[in-house]
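To: structure desk
From: M.T.
Subject: fold request, one chain
Message: Could you run this one when you get a chance? Sequence is below, nothing fancy, just the single chain.
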Amino acid sequence: MATRDQTRVRRPSLLALALVTGIGPFATDTYLAALPQVREALSTSSAGAQLTITGFVVGLAVGQLVAGPVSDGRGRRRVVVLSATAFTAASLVCAFAPSAPVLVALRVLQGLVAGAGVAVGRAVISDSHEGPAAAKAFGTLAAITLLAPVIAPAVGGLVLEVADWRAVFGLMTALGALMLGAALVGVPETLPPQDRQRGGLRALGARVADLARDRAFAHPVAVQCLATAGFFVYIGGSSIVLQGSLGLSSGTYSLVFATNAAAMAVTSLAFRLTVVRLGARTLRRAGLLTSSTGALSLLAVEIASRTGAPLGAVWPLLTVVVAGMGLTLPASTVLAQEAGRRSAGTASSLLGGSGFLVGAAVTPLTGLVGDESVLTMASLMVPGFLVATAVALAPDLRRRSPARR
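Reply: Done. Structure tokens follow.
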């Protein structure tokens, strides 16, 4: 509710929330370098190995869609604690998966429970912060959370140097236990009983319809989904493309991925420092233009090179693509969550769930196309970023003056 008295709830630890909301990126990125091992060990195809990523992303999407509305009616803290507990158990079971289909199913379950924490973590910020304070809090959370993809590939690569892919899930189990402890200590209940939204499916449908009709909410969600389409082509395809087409080792690939993620963390920190002065919409435009420029440049370089561009050209352009997302994602979150404050959990679930459903749809595309080249990956990345940029710019062109928030 926009009029909620923020003094009635204790503000959560942003570090604890970062652990809760960062579990999704960490569980994805730690595992990416293991995809070639999974393909060989479980006797599956590249597309089959990528489905273990897709399954997790689908789970993340559905988990957010379910948990956000539940937390609007039942409160935030219990959902976060249950999410952390279930993630720990699911990660342990994944380590013993005997086949690719079983691993895909378990990854869906793991994603479901991780998604609950991601959605509710954003809602907790909306409960306890408002206006410029909320924008800064989302920026801080994004900067901390994005340390996960910086650290995760390097950690995953180190694990794979001394053990096989199953050990990665052992690491996730330990992280889940840490997340549970952080939730118990640092995430208070931020939605008082008198502010909770009761009712069954009909009431939920009414809340969803209300948000969907609100252009101030639907527009940033649509922009984020389109940008996510381009971004998840990179997430899902980079491991197989860079290790296969360019011959990178798992350790070198982890270094490339971590460097790109570090650039994203830096731009998200820049968002936090400048959002009050420049506005979320301005920073979102900057992020989308940056990613679009990087993706188009990568495509042009690949087309111009008859034998494929070297790593020295591919790496910096991918860094530009990923860096732009460090502005786009937190800006879209600020705009959508502020517009959807009246139903913060449901708004968070729609924002995150729809984005991850799009991500799940595009993650296996590079493997399904069959030509596992940088050119293919770049060709699949470009449309999402260009359309997202066009949609983000169009309202401002009609108004002739940028909306500031």
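Reply (cont.): Residues 215-244 form the longest helix (30 residues). Let me know if you need anything else for the meeting.
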